[in-house]
Design goal:
176 residues; 9 helices; mainly alpha; 0% strand; 76% helix
């Protein structure tokens, strides 16, 4: 395999031993700091993705905060930890997009308030940006619903029903 890649042939035992020594040094360096073992840190981006996809937004947000904590600590001198920390901080945008996409589908007022509360935890968004984003995604949903009923014989009645359904969330965010 090494010859195919154009790399010099090495003894696999030496490579394996070197890799294990590096991993042990990394693990020992984390024992002096109050962070979980290296294997747990390596699995954090996968946990973050899982939490976002399954709707555990509070846990996903907690992991992004942990990524910020890692980024502000000396432990980011390790390039692997820095990569993981950066990925978790960048995942905030994925989390925001996932939350805003909730408004592009059917959503009752109680659920929309819950989603907005989750969005408000992320400090990079102003109140105006939040309102504009919610209304934009809700408008996309409204347009899609109106297009779906536009060919229906009772278009006017169906359109009124669509506006009633979407109106609760619109009214709430225009007033507050």
């Amino acid at each position: 395999m090494w010859d195919v890649l154009g790399l010099p042939a090495v003894d696999s035992m030496v490579v394996t031993r070197s890799i294990l020594e590096i991993l042990m040094m990394l693990l020992l360096s984390f024992e002096t700091v109050l962070f979980p073992p290296m294997w747990d840190v390596l699995g954090l981006p996968a946990k973050m993705d899982l939490y976002i996809r399954t709707g555990y937004y509070d846990s996903a947000y907690a992991l992004t905060n942990y990524g910020m904590t890692l980024a502000q600590n000396d432990v980011v001198k390790n390039p692997l930890v820095k990569l993981i920390s950066d990925r978790m901080v960048e995942a905030r945008s994925v989390l925001l997009e996932e939350l805003f996409n909730k408004f592009a589908g059917p959503l009752d007022l109680a659920s929309s308030i819950q989603v907005v509360n989750n969005v408000r935890k992320i400090p990079f968004l102003t109140g105006t940006q939040l309102r504009v984003s919610v209304l934009h995604h809700r408008d996309l949903y409204l347009d899609k619903q109106i297009m779906d009923v536009s060919s229906h014989p009772d278009f006017a009645l169906k359109a009124i029903d669509v506006y009633k359904e979407v109106g609760d969330v619109f009214n709430y965010y225009f007033i507050y």
